[in-house]
Specification:
The chain is an all-beta fold and about 425 residues long. The chain has strands spanning about 20, 30-35, 40-45, 50-55, 60-65, 70-75, 80-85, 90-95, 100-105, 115-120, 125-130, 135-140, 145-150, 155-160, 165-170, 175-180, 185-190, 195-200, 210-215, 220, 230, 240-245, 250-255, 260-265, 270-275, 280-285, 290-295, 300-305, 325-330, 335-340, 345-350, 355-360, 365-370, 380-385, 390, 400-405, 410-415, 415-420. It has two domains: about 20-305, YVTN repeat-like/Quinoprotein amine dehydrogenase (Methylamine Dehydrogenase, Chain H, 7 Propeller); about 325-420, Beta Barrel (Thrombin, subunit H). A hairpin with a 4-residue loop joins strand 34 (about 380-385) and strand 35.
């Protein structure tokens, strides 16, 4: 689990798989993708910006500004040093990750650019537009190598095969086309969806292609024969996005009803149904090890999910407080969860067993925040009663070791769970 998961301010009915919600965009998030080393996550939004996130800390590192309309798609180069973004302003921008500078702007489309894809060696970039064309760009000199009049209607998604010899395109005309990238020739048309095809993606070995559609179906195709191998039904609304895990054993899909599903490719069974978004899920992406899944929604939020949890079992409910939960904090080894409440108590729960280890009582008002010491031997709690209590949680009786009084209010700080303050003075207490 990433080191930055330390607290969750929202009361949960159960211990769900959502590790973190990344907020910052001011409009719908249309695309998310991990860098190849999974250290970065990038997101594109209708607020005209691209954001880069540190996946270890959940922190927004950079906001890339320059597009004059919605950003529809983002993709990393294979070495994760360059990021490409496609926009409704008809352009594609290439960004240097380290400096956040726009390296070049590719112009030539006459309508919104809705999808982009790098070839595996990052020498080619494919762009798909609502102007019904696909353009292949030489990323070294920014030249357009080929323009393909691909579909009679808008093209919603493109993806390169791993060897860069094939390009798949998905269109509102309900079809998928496979293209020879060296000649710009259509090799085959995949038909079977009965509504617009919103997303296509190759498996890592390029033997499979997955497609999502407005007919609420996900289809898996054999790229050599063009045969539909499986039709995955289960969504009840438009499926906006699909993504393979790196080993091609899993497939994730996101739909307009805010639901994310994870499928096993071999059996076609739905392993997990993840609920948590209040708006449609426009994009899904696996980390390289498939332990984490990112999903982006129309609410402007990105959620990070732990895919290792077995969601075939109903989540067990942690022992509840008798009143509202104000904060949750994990110990650094992620073994113990501390929760604070307006019921004046702190509860310590064993994460693996999902049982309450101890209820710490002593505050006379709402407990607002807690923090573990790095070795998880001590716990500090702050309360509206103006006190901070230091608890020895390494001992069997979880004794209150010290009460630090004299405070009347608390000043939250982004770099630390809390800094106690006595208004109008500020006190910083150091426990030795």
């Amino acid at each position: 689990m990433p080191q930055w998961i330390t607290r969750n301010p929202i009361k949960e009915e159960g211990w769900t798989a959502c590790l973190q919600t990344l907020e910052g965009h001011t409009d719908s998030v249309s695309s998310v993708i991990f860098s190849h080393d999974s250290k970065l996550l990038t997101s594109a939004s209708d607020d005209h910006t691209v954001r880069l996130w540190d996946t270890n800390r959940g922190q927004c590192l950079k906001t890339l500004e320059g597009h004059s309309d919605s950003v529809r798609s983002v993709v990393f180069s294979h070495d994760s040093e360059v990021l490409a973004s496609a926009s409704s302003d008809h352009t594609i921008k290439m960004w240097d990750i380290s400096s956040s500078q726009c390296l070049k702007t590719l112009e030539g489309h006459n309508d919104s650019v809705d999808s982009i894809s790098f070839s595996h060696d990052s020498k080619l970039l494919a762009s798909a537009s609502n102007d019904h064309t696909i353009k292949l760009w030489d990323t070294t000199n920014s030249q357009c190598l080929r323009t393909i009049k691909a579909h009679p209607t808008g093209i919603l998604s493109v993806d390169f095969s791993h060897d860069s010899k094939l390009l798949a395109s998905a269109s509102a005309d309900e079809t998928i086309k496979l293209w020879d990238t060296s000649r710009g020739v259509c090799l085959g048309i995949l038909e079977g969806h009965i509504h617009l095809v919103t997303s296509v993606v190759f498996s890592h070995d390029s033997s499979l292609l997955a497609s999502a559609s407005g007919d609420s179906m996900v289809k898996v195709w054999n790229t050599r024969s063009g045969r539909c191998l499986k039709t995955l039904g289960g969504h009840e609304h438009v499926v906006f996005s699909v993504a393979f895990s790196y080993d091609s054993n899993l497939l994730a899909s996101g739909s307009s009803d805010g639901i994310v599903k994870i499928w096993t490719i071999s059996s076609g069974q739905c392993l997990q149904t993840i609920k948590g978004h209040s708006h449609g899920v426009f994009s899904v992406a696996f980390s390289h090890d498939a332990q984490v899944l990112a999903s982006a929604s129309g609410a402007g939020t990105i959620k990070i999910w732990d895919t290792s949890r077995d969601r075939n079992q109903s989540p067990r409910i942690l022992e509840r407080h008798s009143s509202s939960v104000t904060s949750l904090v994990l110990s650094h080894d992620c073994k113990v969860l501390a929760s604070t409440s307006t019921d004046h108590t702190v509860k310590l729960c064993d994460i693996s067993r999902r049982n309450c280890l101890q209820t710490l009582e002593g505050h006379s008002d709402s407990v607002t925040s807690v923090i573990f010491s790095p070795d998880a031997a001590l716990l500090a709690s702050s309360s509206d009663d103006g006190n901070i209590k230091i608890w020895d949680i390494s001992s069997s009786d979880n004794q209150c070791r010290q009460t630090l009084g004299g405070h009347f209010d608390f000043l939250p700080c982004s770099s630390s769970p809390l800094i106690p303050s006595s208004l109008p003075q500020l006190r910083i207490m150091i426990l030795l």
